[in-house]
Amino acid sequence: MASAASNPTTCSGKDYELPWVEKYRPHKIADIVGNEEAVSRLKVIAKDGNMPNLIFSGPPGTGKTTSILALAHELLGANFKEAVLELNASDDRGIDVVRSKIKMFAQKKVTLPLGRHKIILLDEADSMTSGAQQALRRTMEIYSNTTRFALACNTSAKIIEPIQSRCAIVRFSRLSDRDILDRLLKVVQTENVPYVPEGLEAVVFTADGDMRQALNNLQATYSGFHFVNQDNVFKVCDQPHPLHVINIIRHTVGGNIDDAYAGLKQLYDLGYSASDIITTLFRVVKNYEMPEFVKLEYLKEIGFAHMRIADGVGSILQLSGLLAKLCMARDKAITV
Ligand SMILES: Nc1ncnc2c1ncn2[C@@H]1O[C@H](COP(=O)(O)OP(=O)(O)OP(=O)(O)O)[C@@H](O)[C@H]1O
Ligand SMILES: [Mg+2]
Predict the structure, then answer these.
(1) Rounded to whole angstroms, how far apart are CA atoms 208 and 200?
(2) Are 146 and 117 in contact (CB under 8 A)?
(3) Domains of the chain: which residue ranges?
(4) 177-237 has CATH 1.10.8.60 classification
(5) Spatial separation of the C-alpha atoms in residues 49 and 43, rounded to whole Å
(6) CA 178, CA 184: separation in Å to the nearest integer?
(7) Which residues, given as ranges, of the chain have pLDDT below 50?
(8) CA–CA distances in Å: residue 63 to residues 22, 27, 43, 204, 222
(9) pLDDT digits (tens, 9 = 90+) for 268-294
(10) With the CA atoms of 175, 181, 184 and 186 taken in that order, what torsion angle do they form, in degrees rounded to the nearest 10?
(11) Is 34 in the pocket of ligand 1 (CB under 6 A)?
(12) What is d(CA 217, CA 204) in angstroms, rounded to the nearest whole number?
């Protein structure tokens, strides 16, 4: 019987869509967008060949794993398979693994071009126990003439100090809207995605500097609706529509608490949680055209409300209290 599995061509092409995050993962350092300073440092390392122990730290979806892999490929080329040991949070990385697997790999003999080293990639290193990290300290030093380490993490504070002191830290920050938009434009052109510019801007808004999220949201909108416009994006991403939130802000700026409350109630009744609403509120106010002193008051009040919501008090009363404070903040800022 000719099954789909025995005939690989049946699962290629349109039927078998690779997630765009993987399809468009850059393979060369030069293709990584944003974080110019970090990327230019990596380019220098790739050119010189002498990689120091490195820690890549930064928020999710900004290119840490991508950069580590691209750097290792550029340094080792065809030797990548035998000269790289990759461990991530899905692997057991307790102290035993450091003692056995990592040490054994460090001792392994691999013939490499002059000046190149074996590389141990520890992705999501912030999930390693501190015992395992302690066990790495001396290993890193003993084998430093043949083996280098590259660690990736979201918060470098979760890497113990002695390891930090042995590594150069490469910091990644959230990508700019411009960088994400440029990348999305390339993808929609390659994939022939029908779109309107506001649709792509909406994807950028929902992603908040996370390229992985941007690509996933774009793909989800495309596969769900076959057209990328604002409404479809916010339906797929299930976030409060910013235009709706802009209206609420506009009412508070006009001192019109009743209409602002009506808008808020509508959002709340649609099922959005207080933290969904406050996150969108913050992002909208950040980009809202208003005098700076009023904006600062607004952001301060939203920040306090966010803190209370994060503490667990996410009721509609909390949010309406915030609206009242915003109306007052505007009056206060104007009379001062
Ligand atoms: N700077 C970037 N340039 C181009 N594509 C990027 C960039 N950052 C992320 N991406 C895209 O997002 C996907 C995920 O990126 P990556 O795995 O490097 O994120 P990460 O920083 O390791 O995140 P995490 O902290 O969650 O592990 C990549 O496959 C790629 O498609
Ligand atoms: Mg990663």
Answers:
(1) 13
(2) yes
(3) 32-171, 177-237, 242-335
(4) yes
(5) 10
(6) 10
(7) 1-13, 15
(8) 12, 11, 14, 16, 23
(9) 998 999 999 999 999 999 988 888 888
(10) -110
(11) yes
(12) 9
d(CA 202, CA 237): 10
Phi, psi of 43 (to 5 degrees): -60, -40
Instruction: For residue 20, report the distance from its CA to the centre of ligand 1, in Å.
Output: 11
CA of 328 to the centre of ligand 2 (A): 44
Among 3.40.50.12280, 3.40.50.11810, 3.40.50.300, 3.40.50.720, name the CATH number for the domain at 32-171: 3.40.50.300
Q: Whose CA is nearest to atom 6 of ligand 1?
A: 63
Ligand 1 pocket check for 280: Cβ under 6 Å:
no
Q: Which of 39, 66, 171 to mutate to test the pocket of ligand 1 (most atoms within 8 A of CB)?
A: 66
CA distances from 193 to 143, 198, 205 (A): 50, 14, 19
Rounded Cα distance between 310 and 119, Å, is 40
Q: Does the 242-335 domain belong in CATH 3.30.70.1050?
A: no
Tell me the pTM. Answer: 0.84
The answer, yes or no, to whether any atom of ligand 1 lies below 6 A from the CB of 21, is yes
Both structure tokens of 113: 């071009």
Cβ 21 vs Cβ 215: under 8 Å: yes
User: Cα(255)–Cα(237) distance, rounded to whole angstroms?
Assistant: 31
Hey, what are 30's tokens? 């030069």
Say how far apart CA 84 and CA 67 lie, in whole Å: 14
Q: Is the CB of 26 under 6 A from ligand 1?
A: yes
Q: Separation of 253 CA from ligand 1 center, angstroms?
A: 38
* Distance in Å, CA 209 to ligand 1 centroid: 11
Residue 65 in contact with ligand 1 by CB distance below 6 A:
yes
32 lines ligand 1 (CB under 6 A): yes
- CA 88/CA 170 separation, integer angstroms: 18
Position 200 scores a pLDDT of 92
The model's pLDDT over 20-56, given as tens digits with 9 standing for 90+, comes to 999 999 999 999 998 999 999 999 998 888 889 999 9
- What is the number of the ligand closest to the CA of 122? 2
* DSSP 8-state secondary structure symbol assigned to residue 228: B
